[in-house]
Amino acid sequence: MHPIEFTPTHYAINGQPVYLNSGEFHYFRVPKSDWRRRMALFKAAGGNCLATYIPWLIHEPEEGTFAFGDVDWRDLEGFLQTAADAGLYVVARPGPYQYSELLYGGLPGWLIQNYPQLLARTLAGEPFGMPSVSYLHPLFLEKVRAWFAAVCPILARYTVAQGGPIALTQFDNELTGIHIWFGGLDYNAEALGFGQADGRYPRFLRARYGDIARLNAAYDAAYGDFVEVMPAPRAEDTPADVRRARDTFDFYTHATAEYAQTLCRMLREFGIDTPFIHNAANPEMNPYFLETIAALDEPFVLGSDHYYNLDQHWPQNNPTPQYARRVFLSCEELRLFGFPPTVLELPGGSASDWPPITPEDALACYLTNLAYGMKGHNVYIFTGGPNPPGVGESTDMYDYGAAIGADGDVRPLYAAQKALGDVIAQYPWLVEAERAGDCRLALDFEYARAERYYRPNYQTWELMERGPLTTAFCAGASPVCVNLDSDDWVTDVATPLIVVSAESMGRAKQERLMRFLQNGGKMLIMPTLPTLDETLEPCTVLADCLGATPVWLNVGRVVRAAVGGVVNVRHGAAYVSDTLPLETDVIGVNEYSGDVLAWHTTTDGGGQAIMLGLAWVHSKHEHTAMLRALLTRLGWEPRVVCSNPNIWTSLRVAGERGLLFILNLYSSPMEAEVSYRDATGALISTGTHRLGAMTVKVVEVHL
Amino acid sequence: MHPIEFTPTHYAINGQPVYLNSGEFHYFRVPKSDWRRRMALFKAAGGNCLATYIPWLIHEPEEGTFAFGDVDWRDLEGFLQTAADAGLYVVARPGPYQYSELLYGGLPGWLIQNYPQLLARTLAGEPFGMPSVSYLHPLFLEKVRAWFAAVCPILARYTVAQGGPIALTQFDNELTGIHIWFGGLDYNAEALGFGQADGRYPRFLRARYGDIARLNAAYDAAYGDFVEVMPAPRAEDTPADVRRARDTFDFYTHATAEYAQTLCRMLREFGIDTPFIHNAANPEMNPYFLETIAALDEPFVLGSDHYYNLDQHWPQNNPTPQYARRVFLSCEELRLFGFPPTVLELPGGSASDWPPITPEDALACYLTNLAYGMKGHNVYIFTGGPNPPGVGESTDMYDYGAAIGADGDVRPLYAAQKALGDVIAQYPWLVEAERAGDCRLALDFEYARAERYYRPNYQTWELMERGPLTTAFCAGASPVCVNLDSDDWVTDVATPLIVVSAESMGRAKQERLMRFLQNGGKMLIMPTLPTLDETLEPCTVLADCLGATPVWLNVGRVVRAAVGGVVNVRHGAAYVSDTLPLETDVIGVNEYSGDVLAWHTTTDGGGQAIMLGLAWVHSKHEHTAMLRALLTRLGWEPRVVCSNPNIWTSLRVAGERGLLFILNLYSSPMEAEVSYRDATGALISTGTHRLGAMTVKVVEVHL
After folding, report:
1. Which of residues 360-419 of B touch A (CB under 8 A)?
2. Taking CB atoms and an 8 Å limit, are A667 and B667 in contact across chains?
3. Residue A4, H or E segment
4. Which of A181, A312, A313 should we substitute to test contact with B (largest number of B Cβ atoms within 10 Å)?
5. What is the rounded distance in angstroms from the CA atom of residue B471 to the CA atom of residue A525?
6. Contact by Cβ (8 Å): B344, B169
């Protein structure tokens, strides 16, 4: 077997682009007697790879006593050999954490019971609601090292380079989740060095601020040394509060990156020669891995887990347009991070029997992910079985409603997974395809992370999702995302750029937007212009470039907005422009007062900017009409035209080949006429499509 | 036209039971030239009544200047005459509040602008985020009186008793919403008498406590007089905190009832001789009207508004089983309050175009309401049109995506409303039918109201919904509800009673449960036994009756539960019984420790009680199996047997006639074999039903 390689856009084997079609298959649960048959079923559905946890708690039942191969459910090598015989790659996931509804998240009970000092702690020093460990605790790392020293040599004999099936190795699982879900950030002082001379926290602050005077200025404080500074929980009363909380969160993700790096180095040390992977627990956590991505100097792919329902606390029972929007953002984020978008847990059932994961819903989910750029996935789980004695968190039987039942029966969900495999097989060029975009959306990951420390910025991220992005989809626009932390889009002025800005935006980001305009770029920015940088210090680089002296008044609901020829635009906050650039077209006003809500100006270098002082949650046809009108002013030409605003589309293109995805993620039938623009710019109709409830249709087109 | 009367179970006209099929139709929006045609369309769909707001702000544009009939959109009398000509009843809704996406919720702008003293206030004295008035402010009531004095004499000429079409009159709209959504409880001191000798608040406290010493004991305080006591926002640190916050909330709903009573008296004074109605804004607010129901000595029906989506902030895009559960509880609550369950705003579109209200979803919603006991409804809205000049909150055109568009076009939603009308017409006896129950669920409205003042009790209400009630539906049980504040169920021991208890339960309720057991009743109680009364004073009436000395340990997640022969029951909190009744069967244990989690005992009088120490959110087949096993121990015999736990059913019976509703509220097709028990106790199969996504099927059966 050749190694699995990857580029920023796709996986490849022996130089051939390939889709990574993986399924979770636990040797410690699936009865050994049925391994071969279930693997054959998986291959028949299009699979080329299996993933398995290798639970620490079953292989080191007592400290220092390791067991492999003595019983079927510990027969790791037998499993690896059987997978190789079946012609399937393996993703090895040796932890230390697994979760997987195992006791202690897969850590040995003795570790938790005998070493309470390594537990994660709240700021007050209390342990969390779950046995969550502090990742960087030296004793924990020592125990992990012993576990890796035992398991890695086995795995190392089965890597692809050694003629085995292991192509990828995952370190840990859903990093940060075990803390954030059960207690918040980890404040274990021993591990993180709070108050310790040369501890991690004072070192982090020293690296960030250089000398204590700068920190004191930022914190409005009077520390004598970095070692005196304690982490601060979220508080938003003053800019100093926000800076402290932001530093605390950044330190936490920085420390998480150090943990990831430590694990990777151990794995290498013990002979693992494959690339590494890791899975963010959900799309919202993707940006928590920026430091991890920067820290790892190894071949690495970050993927994300894309569930739509795991129990009745989830917002919806089935995939929805809101889910699609989330998938779109997640795949775009992973792509912008430099990875082939990979869904490392694609729903293959649920630990809950209710609400049900139906095959129809699951297939719609799968194709939605494919539509928005998924280049590889791992179905969680493909098949299960009984938990080994004493390790299941709440159940003896781990069935998960999977495609192949715990007792081996083939369920309707299998056909849904095969249908996904069939689409991938039918359009093998899809792995090299890119989304055909006609406009761009700027992502500011600072806003996404601010969920943990600064509400106004996170609300701007939510506004971006619920407002302009949703409106763009309903308006038939095909946005692709750009990363405001990167320069790679600044000279590309082919399509208009949508920017959703908070009062604060990093100086470098503001400068990039300025350069984009000076290069002739066209930008629609809303609902305000930034006046502060990322540390909440004054910064009006972008406003200055536009010639605007922004005095923004949030005048709220008493406004009736008419923008771009569309009247009665419903909105939340409204920002009135007090001072306008010298050369400007007023294109939006308060219908009552005439106050200016939107204007269109030209910058040096021929750039164009529309400032739109409205914040809205998408809900009205007026929103789509307004966005279309504004984008059209900026030269927008839709790549796909769809007659039904409820039907979203995604056109993926590789050379002259295109696959048009038409998504009905509602519980009702829908109808839409859909056209696309070919290479000559002509609109080609694909006809009228009648889509049943929860149906994603794929239509092959030629550009 | 004969008056519309009502019994606790149905509406009637001239002694004939009838379904109230109403549609919202605003004379101030629908073009007058199209009134007749749209009314005819409404009748053709089965309608027999129209409802309309009569907006204060359009009829009193300047203070003291009233206008009626001068322009088409103020032609109230023309509308009433046209409705009468069309043979349609009218529900008149003269406010003062309307909401309806009108400026100031339908109040005149001059009222808000010229009289800031009548605005609702936060505890700190700040006005709310919206122009919310303080209901009992004397100046507000004076202005309302002037408005009623102008409008009511017109309406009074058109009541049924006077030969006109007005059969019902609604006072105000969605009481409490204008406060709770935009600022919380109203603390306008002038209106509510805080700190005023003989003010409303000190009078309320005096009536509740009698003398100040009792209040001081409850509050752990040392007031000299009731007038010194200020209202208290929610705090839950001590029982005294909870008592203060509970009194504050109870006072608020008590004051709301006084407002309702005042409005009704004014309406009567100005000649309105119809029964009154009012709509709770949503099911969760139904129990906020207990004081209003008690205060009104007039014919009165409380209904509720049952939307499933109004914009993307709603939890789901379409009706779901979670929505069905909510509808079930709401209809049961209204029935227990003594009213024919009426959905005064049944979704007839939405002010948001997205997510869409599809005809398929709407019909499933309508039939779900019918399945759970709806005996009348008002579609909001049947048809709209342009807002009068200057009164629309955010839009000139009020279309709402209604069945008949603002410009008069007939939309697919019309067919869904006609389909509902057809079912009602086809089974006219349905209005007298009752739900065929096989078990009962005890409702403690104290828990529902506690959302505003005491988290543990509200969490018990949520637990009831998400846990046992949902499990009951998935298990194929047919619960009907009883009111723990009423005696009417205490001697009926035919079917088992499910009780979900918090640590606190009112003494009278505990005594009723005791009497029920002593009458031979059978009870399943979970997850704990109450040890406190409603004021958090010690009270173990129920536990004493069971012979249990409850020492409950919440031992949480480390338990694995085996109950009623079902192992691995997933749960949240677990309560271990330390001391058991003398004569008891242990029927549930911690699988690891053997600690007792459930027991079954017999009481004096032959009652039986199962105490089940588990709190769970329904998610697993084990939950349904456990509940079936426990109910079966208490003599449960299902009235309906359904092979698919995802398909919920409701059998409504009138004499020998029955209508079986089979609900698929998922986005995927479902299949189920459904049987029902006839009068002889035999199970009769209705066959296997293949239900498309979002389909509610009705099957006529004979008992």
Report:
1. 360-361, 392, 394-397
2. yes
3. strand A4-6
4. A312
5. 49
6. no
Digit-coded pLDDT (tens) for A399-408: 999 999 999 9
Q: What ipTM describes this predicted complex? A: 0.96
For residue B311, the number of C-alpha atoms closer than 13 Å in the C-beta half-sphere is 14
For A631-640, the pLDDT digits (tens) are 999 999 999 9
Whole-prediction pTM value? 0.97
Strands A276-280 and A300-305: what pairing? parallel
B694 to chain A: which residues are within 8 Å by CB? 667-668, 693
CB < 8 Å to A359, chain B: 668
Cis peptide before A355 (omega within 30 of 0): yes
- Helices and strands, number each (H, E), in chain A: 20, 31
CA-wise closest residue to A174 among A318, A267, A284, A56:
A284
**For B439-638, CATH number?**
3.40.50.880
Overall average pLDDT of the A487-499 stretch: 97
| Cα–Cα distance list, A5 to A11, A23, A83, A274, A294 (Å) | 6, 18, 19, 10, 20
Do domains B18-184+260-426 and B439-638 share one topology? The answer is no
Whether CATH 3.40.50.880 fits A439-637: yes
Inter-chain CB proximity A570 and B394 less than 8 Å: yes
A647 Cα to chain B: minimum distance (Å): 11
Let me know how long chain B is: 703
**Does the CB of B459 have a partner CB in chain A at under 8 Å?**
no
CA distance B366 to chain A (A): 15
CATH classification code of A641-702 = 2.60.40.1180
C-alpha B285/C-alpha B138 separation (Å) is 26
Question: Would you say how long chain A is, in residues?
Answer: 703
What are the residue boundaries of the structural domains of chain B, listed by start?
18-184+260-426, 439-638, 641-702
In terms of DSSP H, where are the helices of B398-527? 412-426, 445-449, 455-464, 470-474, 507-518
CATH superfamily, domain A4-181+272-432, is: Glycosidases (3.20.20.80)
- Candidates B372, B414, B406; CA nearest to B386 is B406
Give A322's contacts in chain B (Cβ within 8 Å): 312, 317
CA–CA distance from A275 to each of A272, A297, A380, B84 (Å)? 9, 11, 21, 78
Kindly state whether B318 is in contact with chain A, defined as any CB-CB distance less than 8 angstroms: yes
Quick one: B18-184+260-426 is in which CATH superfamily? Answer: Glycosidases (3.20.20.80)
User: What is the distance in angstroms between the Cα of A668 and the nearest Cα belonging to chain B?
Assistant: 6
Instruction: State the CB neighbour count (10 A cutoff) for residue B642.
Output: 24
pLDDT at residue B555, rounded to an integer: 65
